[in-house]
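Quick one:
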Amino acid sequence: MTTKRESILAAIATVLAGTTGVSARIYRSRTEAFTRAETPAILIEPVQDIAQQITLNNYEWALLVRITVIARGDIPDQQADATILSLHSKISADLTLGGLCQDVQAMTVQYDFLDGDQPMGLVMCDYNIKYRTVLNDLSQ
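Output:
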């Protein structure tokens, strides 16, 4: 059995399948550099997960997930725009992620630009995901 957190992260990867411009290049918590052939791509990472006890036996969690679009081109953020539009539509289509959570809330978008043989941009879209577990079992 897995934690609800892991189930939510896996569900996000599944929901993002078919996102405009990335084909099957959707990765979870990847640490190695992306080659030119591997971009554009999407990277899904948990950033933090904060618990608050809401009843004697239940926690409500706020899981911050970062979905990064990696794009290359003369204007990388412009190259990433259609992918961002598509991923946001997919994430927002079911705000319970198939019943795994109570809500998905868009938070912030940050940009980072890198120099190289071709300009690369990282567009980091943060989502706050609210979900609940029982006190002594993170899978329920």
